Amino acid sequence: MRTLLFGVVTAVVLAAAPVIAEATPPVRQDVGAQADPVRIMPLGDSITQGGSIGGYRLDLGSKLRSSGRAVDFVGSLADGPSSMPDRDHEGHPGWTIAQVDANVVSWLRTSTPRTVLLHIGTNDMYGSDPGGAPNRLGTLVDRITAQAPGADVFVATIIPISFADQTVRTFNAAVTSIVRAKAAAGKKVHLVDMYPSVSVSDLPDGIHPNAAGYAKMATTWYNALLSVPGSIGDGTQEPPPDGACAATPRVTGSWGGGFQGEVTVANTSTSALTGWTVRLPLPNGHTVSQIWGGTASGSGTVTVKNVDYNGSLAAGTSTTFGFIASGTGTAAVGTATCAAA
To answer: What span is annotated as the signal peptide, if there is one (predicted)?
Structure first.
């Protein structure tokens, strides 16, 4: 994707927007078919590629593995930090819908994905024919479903562009109608409303998300995948331990002056939770400067409470919240505790 610099914008992290998934009735695969990892193709342009941080693929892969899913990202490219467990994808920087369409059959034949995550069209918005982009996308989706009729194809509305918002909105409205029509015709295509998940504040150059924006995209993809049985397998998590809830933190990225982390909150009891509170120890001198999926207070050991949309957890289910900690020194988090609210 062409790089357009509009100055660094400080990210204002918002809670991730709900997912809208338009799905045809899915066909569950049998247990034997799920023995091997589910092959998922992240498909698109530089927003899928995600630069050196791995884009949404980093957090999405973590969420899938944490939920017990055996998955394998597939594609002819590999990008992201060296510590990223699965770096494969088909995110081609600068490419338009037509360029992806010209190559997708070959990629599908080589990688044989079970599930496709498609976010494409951004480069068309400032090309010579943005008005024709929805039809081009429809042709691309038809080509994918013809080559891989058994695959679940998740088609996203594209995230905002700071300088072309109305053009993006017009494209997304047309994409919504196209995907719904194809789903109604019996194709295994599913609409993922990605546009509201990412704010312009999450786009430092007006186009590409920062780490917080990519984390929001990952949550939206994850929720959409969960809504279609079989698209990511059936899950193989071990039974949760006794107790009300558990919090499992991890560092997802670091840089000079701070790091990004994610905490998985799991209901480990046999009854539903209506709220939770996590106490999260941070390294000396670090403070939470941004958070999504929770509200934070205090310093040193930070107290995080759920927000409205993720406080209710059925027995055996989990949610996540993410944060950015500012400070110098080693990027690390201590043992977190969780209590029912």
So the answer is: 1-21
